[in-house]
Amino acid sequence: MGKLYNSDAEALTRRNRELTILNVIAQALNREVDLSQALHTTLARVAEIFDLQTGWIWLMHPDTGEPYLAAAQNLPPGLANFPRRMQGWCYCLETYEAGDLEGAANVNVVTCSRLKNLVDGTDGLRYHASIPLYAHEKKLGVLNVSSPDWRQLSSEDLRLLHIIGDLLSIAVERARLFERSIQLGAVEERNRLAREIHDTLAQGLTGIALNLETADALLESEADPEQARLAIGHALGLVRASLEEARRSVMDLRAAPLEGRSLPEALQALADSMSDAKLQVVCDLPENLPPLPVRIEVGLYRIAQEALNNIRAHANAQKAELILAAGVGKINLSISDNGSGFDPASVPAGRYGIVGLNERAKLLGGALQLTSALGQGTLVQVSVPL
Residues 156, 288: one domain? Predict the structure, then answer.
C-alpha cells in the first residue's frame, strides 16, 4: 500500500511538473507573433527546463520546401564558426522528410551527421533529440536539442518534447499567418489609397478640366465673358478644395472629409460644393442621426462623393438627389439623377468609378444596387448593416 501511495505521489509530482513546463512555454509562445522571436523563446525555455545546452530549429521553406536554419542556441564552435555546416540537408532532415523519425511519440535520438566526423569544436556533442514539427499533415521542420553529458531521455521527457513540438508548430503557423495578414493588409491599404486618390484628387482634377474646357469653349464662341469667368472661378474653387483635401489626406485620409462634422453635415457640404448653374444637388438628411462607426461614415461619404462626381462627369443631369435614412439595424444611402442614364450591361469592364462604388460597399459589409436605363437617369442604393 505504501509503495502504491509513493508511486501515485511520484506520478502526480511528475504530471504537475509537465503541466508547469507546458504552461510556461505556452504563455511564452502566446506572447509572440514574430516567428524568429517565438523560435528563440522556445529554444531558451527547452534548454532551461531540460538542462540541455544546445538547440536549433530547422524549418522547411513554405515555397521551396528546402530546409533552413531558423533559430539556434549555443552552437558548438565547429558549427557556429562554419555556417556552411549548418546549411542544406542532413541525416535527421532526410529521415524526417522520409517520415521515418521513430521512437517515443515519434521523437528519436540520432547521431548528428554534422558533428559525427568533427574532431575539434564539438564541445562533446555527438547526439541530439529530433522533434518533428507538423501542421496537420504539412511538414514544418525539426527541433533539435543536445547536451555534452547526453543521457537517454525518458519516455516521459520525449513525450513532453513532442507536446512542446506541437505548441511550437502552432506558433510557427500562427506567425506565418500573421505575416500573411500584414501583407494582405498592405495590399488592401494600397487599394484603399488608390480609391482615396481617385475619389479626391483625380475627381477634383476632372472637375477642373471640365470647367476650364467650358470656359475655353465660351471664349472661342465669343459668348458672355461673365459665363467664362464663372467657369474659371469654379475651377479655381476646385483647385483650392483639391489642395486642401491633399493636405488633409497626408495627415489622415480616413478622417479628412468628416473632420469636425457629422455625416449629414458632411454630405450637405458635399452637395453644396457640387451644386452650380448646371447641376443642382438636393439632400434629404436625418436631423438626429445617431453616431456611426467612423469607417462607415467615411465609406458612405466616399460613395456619395464618387456617385455625384460620376453624375457631373457623365450623366448630363440637371438635378441629383441624395437621401440618407436610418433603418432598423442598418443605414441606407441613395443617390439619383435625372440624366441620360446608361445600360449597366454595356459598361466596359474595369470602369473604375463603378468598381470603386462596389468595393466600398463590400468593405463596409453592405450591398450596392445600381439601376439605370437610357434616358431614365440613374439610381445608386447602398444598404450597410450596423
Answer: no
Instruction: For residue range 275-290, list pLDDT tens digits in order.
Output: 888 899 999 998 878 7
Residue 333: give its domain's CATH number.
Answer: 3.30.565.10
Phi, psi of 107 (to 5 degrees): -115, 140
Q: What is the pTM of this model?
A: 0.45
Q: Are strands 138-146 and 54-60 parallel, antiparallel or unpaired?
A: antiparallel
Flag whether pLDDT at 13 surpasses 50. yes
> Does residue 384 lie within any of the structural domains?
yes
Q: How far is CA 352 from CA 98, 306, 364, in A?
A: 51, 10, 18
SS (H, E, C) the chain: CHHHHHHHHHHHHHHHHHHHHHHHHHHHHHCCCCHHHHHHHHHHHHHHHHCCCEEEEEEECCCCCCEEEEEEECCCHHHHCCHHHHCCCCHHHHHHHCCCCCCHHHCEEEECCCCCCCCCCCCCCCEEEEEEEEECCEEEEEEEEECCCCCCCCHHHHHHHHHHHHHHHHHHHHHHHHHHHHHHHHHHHHHHHHHHHHHHHHHHHHHHHHHHHHHHHHHHCCCCHHHHHHHHHHHHHHHHHHHHHHHHHHHHCCCHHHCCCCHHHHHHHHHHHHCCCCCEEEEECCCCCCCCCHHHHHHHHHHHHHHHHHHHHHHCCCEEEEEEEEECCEEEEEEEECCCCCCHHHCCCCCHHHHHHHHHHHHCCCEEEEEECCCCCEEEEEEEEC
Model pLDDT for residues 57-86, shown as the tens digit of each residue: 888 888 788 888 888 888 888 888 888 888
For the segment 8-13, the average pLDDT, to the nearest whole number, is 70
Residue 378 lies in a domain: yes
Query: Which residues have CB under 8 Å from 79's CB, separation 6+?
Result: 85, 86, 114, 115, 121
- pLDDT tens by residue, 220-247: 887 777 887 887 888 787 777 776 666 5
Give the domain range for residue 279: 261-386
Place of cell 564552435: 77
Instruction: Give mean pLDDT, residues 129-142.
Output: 83
Structural domain total, the chain: 2
Alpha-carbon distance of 247 to 379, in angstroms, equals: 32
Q: Do 175 and 269 belong to one domain? A: no
